[in-house]
Write a structure and sequence with these properties.
Layout (H helix, E strand, L loop, with lengths): L43 H14 L3 H7 L13 H14 L3 E5 L14 H17 L2 H15 L1 E9 L4 E7 L4 E4 L11 E8 L10 E11 L17 E2 L7 E2 L1 E11 L18 E2 L11 E2 L7 E5 L18 H22 L3 E7 L21 E10 L3 H22 L3 H4 L10 H7 L1 H31 L13 E5 L7 H13 L5 H10 L7 H37 L13 H4 L1 H6 L1
Antiparallel strand pairs: 1-15, 2-3, 2-12, 4-5, 5-6, 6-9, 7-8, 9-10, 9-11, 13-14
């Protein structure tokens, strides 16, 4: 390989695979879909990487290598280690549940709520209802598994007039083609394509074609401007989330199809001839050719599994740095399978044996190693068996070594994968140290997604405002985020003791205490309702104590009155005329 062929990019961890050299090559058996004329050349390595990673997830890496020319790869044994690593990392990333949280909503139930807390709580409730209707938990798991496996995932929002809410759809990142030409904002492109090929359907009379859905930011077209949405300036519009500010930018949607036979060399995805396009039509008859969506953002969210390097845009798969170790593991499993065959049915050498003769042919028959077989040996006969069990034991030890290496280098850790022997952990603190790399990995993965989900919920609010949905008024959108549950088990007893002491000492508010219990995994469905129940119960107990104290005080006063009655010891005698003569009588 010459120096000019040595490539270092976001996909260079796959350079060791010979099959990557076939990406985009005409006649490639491994990547025939990448040889299409409409495929952008600079996207070929990324799309090839996605296919390689998907083959590992489906135990087909050997088949892909065989399609690239490695005939021996068909004997490769793959036992699901790659898929297990992906699913394990995904499970820790997602935690037990995810919730939509709006900043400030937790203060709405306080005795003196902060300004805007009630509005934040109302928005949080509406967003959670939207999440339930759109199966957000399901969509998040769809998107995140693709992100963990492939490094990237894509979510697309669209306003549905019939349902009166934004709809959410997850796309394969192989369909996603952002356009970075002449982009002022390095974080967000001004145009993105979602494109895929549609195969021919002879029964329906359809030829092979490519479909392209384009979202593009551009200046507002005055000819299609609605007077109700204009502020009086030419080609400008006031959006409900930015009242008082005129904008001349909008988002256009184009959804068209092109026949593959009509495309020539050089007419790639971003250069498809518009005069040969067949545009799709909505249910209301509107043609999807530069349709003004009446929003000033692209309703597309790209999720990267890791924080991209400077100048990069794409994430990295959880398998990226351990892919060669997975190859080594598959090769060891294949060798172990061959060794186990000779161990279970050993190779036997016979000397001086009398072989049975086939009566039909008159030739000696082959001996078979099976239970109950009897071989006659001569006086000098000998039988020797080849023992391959030591080699099999070495291969099993190598498998364990490779699994430990994969767990360490992927940072999922042996404790995270469940391969760590519990008897080897002396204490809970030692287990926490063992899970340290996993904590750092999940923290980094969640950080890479934090602002993307904030962006998603911002778009949801603005689509509601643009659709003039009931309850969504004009005004600035509130910051919302996706709250993740703890990814590892927590010591509930220690957290509870800490919360009780801190709250009893007055250094923690009730809301913060409930939030800590919620993060520890206590079955609290709604923090605000739990706060209300606790306060209501405290008020009832306080009222009961006051009533009991009042009753006790009444009983005490009553007892004093009874003790001071006639005949009581030490009682005060009433002053009267007959009593005034008592001292005189006493003197007699």
């Amino acid at each position: 390989m010459s120096l000019r062929q040595f490539v270092i990019d976001a996909w260079s961890w796959l350079n060791y695979k010979p099959v990557m050299a076939d990406a985009g090559r005409p006649g490639s058996r491994a990547f025939p879909e990448l040889a299409k004329t409409w495929m952008p050349p600079h996207e070929l390595r990324r799309l090839a990487a996605y296919k390689v990673l998907a083959s590992y997830d489906n135990n087909q890496a050997g088949q892909l290598a065989a399609a690239g020319g490695d005939a021996g790869a068909l004997e490769r044994r793959e036992l699901g280690d790659a898929a297990n690593l992906v699913d394990t990392a995904l499970g820790y990333l997602l935690g037990s549940e995810q919730k939509v949280a709006v900043e400030g909503a937790e203060h709405a139930d306080e005795e003196t709520p902060t300004p805007g807390a009630a509005e934040a709580a109302a928005v949080q409730e509406r967003l959670r209802k939207w999440a339930d209707k759109e199966l957000l938990t399901f969509r998040v798991q769809q998107a995140e598994r693709a992100a963990v496996l492939l490094g990237d995932s894509v979510m697309v929002l669209a306003w549905n007039p019939e349902k009166q809410r934004p709809t959410l759809r997850v796309y394969d990142p192989g369909f996603f083609f952002p356009q970075w030409d002449d982009v002022e904002d390095e974080d967000f492109p001004a145009k993105v394509h979602l494109a895929w090929e549609l195969p021919a359907d002879d029964d329906a009379g359809l030829k092979a074609r490519v479909r392209r859905v384009t979202y593009e930011l551009g200046p507002i077209s005055v000819s299609g401007e609605d007077d109700a949405d204009r502020d009086g300036s030419k080609g400008a519009r006031t959006y409900p989330w930015e009242p008082g500010r005129a904008s001349n930018t909008t988002c256009y949607l184009t959804d068209g199809e092109w026949l593959l036979e009509d495309l020539k060399n050089g007419e790639t995805l971003d250069r498809l001839p518009m005069n040969k396009a067949s545009f799709r039509v909505r249910r209301d008859g509107t043609e999807l050719n530069r349709l003004d969506l009446m929003i000033d953002f692209l309703p597309v969210v790209h999720i990267a599994n890791t924080i991209p390097d400077g100048g990069e845009y794409w994430g990295r798969s959880v398998l990226a740095r351990v892919l060669q170790a997975l190859d080594e593991l598959a090769a060891t499993d294949s060798d172990g399978s061959a060794a186990s065959a000779t161990t279970g049915t050993p190779i036997i050498g016979l000397a001086g044996a009398r072989l049975p003769v086939d009566r039909a042919t008159g030739k000696p028959q082959e001996l078979q190693v099976k239970a109950g077989a009897v071989w006659q040996l001569g006086e000098t006969g000998r039988m020797d068996a080849l023992d391959t069990s030591p080699q099999l034991a070495e291969l099993r030890a190598r498998v364990d070594h490779l699994l430990e290496r994969i767990a360490a280098n992927s940072r999922v850790t042996a404790a995270g994968l469940g391969t760590l022997d519990a008897t080897e952990v002396p204490s809970g603190y030692a287990l926490k140290l063992a899970l340290g790399p996993l904590d750092a990995l999940i923290g980094m993965m969640r950080l890479a997604r934090e602002h993307k989900y904030r962006l998603l919920f911002k778009m949801v609010q603005r689509l509601y405002q643009a659709g003039r949905a009931e309850g969504w008024t004009a005004g600035e959108t509130l910051p919302a985020r996706l709250s993740w549950a703890p990814h590892t088990p927590t010591d509930r007893g220690a957290v509870l003791e800490e919360v009780v002491k801190a709250y009893g000492a007055g250094v923690l508010s009730l809301e913060t205490a409930i939030a800590m219990l919620l993060e520890a995994g206590y079955p609290i469905k709604d923090a605000s309702q739990e706060v209300e129940r606790i306060r209501a119960k405290a008020e009832q107990e306080a009222a009961a104590r006051m009533a009991e104290a009042a009753a006790r005080q009444g009983r005490d006063e009553n007892d004093e009155d009874q003790e001071d009655g006639p005949g009581a010891v030490g009682a005060k005698k009433p002053v009267g005329k007959e009593h005034e003569r008592e001292p005189v009588a006493a003197g007699r």
